[in-house]
Each structure stands twice: as structure tokens, then as C-alpha cells.
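As a warm-up, study this chain.
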Amino acid sequence: MTGTGDSVNVISFRDVYFGYPGNDDYTLKGVSFDIRAGSTEVILGGSGSGKSTILKLVLGLIKPNSGVIAVEGRDIGPLSEDDLMDVRADIGMVFQEGALFDSLSVSENVGFRLREHEGLPEKEFEERISRLLGFVGLSEFYDRSPSDLSGGQRRRVAVARAMAHHPELILYDEPTTGLDPITGSTICDLIVKLRDLEGVTSVVVTHQLRDAFQVAQSFVMLVDGEIEYHRVDDVELLYGTEFLVLNEGKLVFQGRQRDLFRSDEPYVHKFLEGQIPAFRR
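Now compare it with the structure written out below.
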């Protein structure tokens, strides 16, 4: 089973307010939360609730109007762009549509950041890329063009690229949007695999409760050199994944799946009922 024990916080938000220029209202309003090392935080909420804004703030692409954002214990608000590049070096990012370069092969896409920053010898570069593509189940696509890939395969290449520099934190922005349920399930398995086998801390922005629950109720184990996937129906048994629910820029819930179902917060109940017709508290 997964767990994080007394792990340190990888991300901390303290009373964060943020508003986009030209907007009369704040997108985030006094948001505070912590994300522990080795855990997975699933951020839920309706369109415009501020989910993707949180990812941009973590990366330092935008600055809060007020409040403190710490990544690995470091307040990133006052940092210069050069210092932020050091912070981002420990973060992987999987964008909603994969965001691959069609002019590059699959292997070149996966290794793009390695070429830019690490200058690995060619043999070591090829070995690392091969291992990464094997991890996501795409070894045979090494020299293919992204245009030859399905949507799900492109998303898996994006996961491999995010892993290339061994980040301690990976941010996923709607990683299963536009994918069929089976392919979406494959992406969720990769998120769980990275958490349980590699110890990667993950932040997953999604509106797909089906996929969010798969991540929360699944774990993987390495048995005799083979990876075994397991899923439990009893949400009391697993920990290591939490849910964070935003409503109109305010944090209205943070906790485990079992507590999500028990929440008395009206918006949480409305959100669950809207996506799960048979939902009953």
C-alpha cells in the first residue's frame, strides 16, 4: 500500500490571492494547502475555478498578488527568472494536449531537455531515452514522428519527456482530456506507477472523477521484478492521494477520497452529484 508518513511538504500555499490583469475579481482567493513529498494531489473544480492557475503559480510563470508559495521549502515569490529556472529544473510538466514538437522524432522530444541542459554523451543519452520509452510502453516508437501517434501515445510520450531529468515533482494539466476511457486509464496507471515506484510527487488537475478515483484507489508493487497493479474498492485502505476542490477561486475541501464522500460542503456534494448520477452520501 502507498503512504507518505511524516514526509516534508514539496508545495505550500499560504493565503494566496491571484487575479489576472483586467479581471475585476480574483481567480484565487486566500488559498492555503500543503502537498507532501511522494504524494499525489488531485485538483478538482469547475471551469474557471483556478485549477490550472495553481500550476502556473507553482512554476513561477505568474506571481501571486499576495500570500506565499513555497516549493521544496523555498519561497518562490521574490525569485528572479534565473533562480526560478533552478526551481523548474526539479519539476516535470505534462500539458493537456501533450505539446510535442512535430518536427522532432519521439526520442528527440523525450530528450529535448536533456540535450539543452545536461549534455549527455550520445550512448548515455540513447540508453536513458530507451529506458524512459520502455517505462511508458513505447519502446518501438523511438524514431517515429509524433504525427504518427494516437492521442494517448502522444500523452505517454509527454509523460516520458517530463520524467527525463528525474524530477521530484510532476504537474499534470488535464492529462486524460480528449482520451477514451481505456487510454485515459493507461495514463492514470502511469501516474500511479511514478508515485509508487519512483517516489514522484504529483499534482493532477482534472475534471474527470473517474480518472481521479482510479489514481486514488490504485497502487503498484514490484514483485520478483514484475510490476503488479492493484485496485481496492474500500477507500478506507489507501492513502497517499488527496483531493483538493476549488469553487470560484476558494478552496472548499482538501482530504482523502473517503472524506470527500462524507463532506458537508454544499459545492462538493453538488460537484459529485453532477458527475455521478447515482451518488448518495
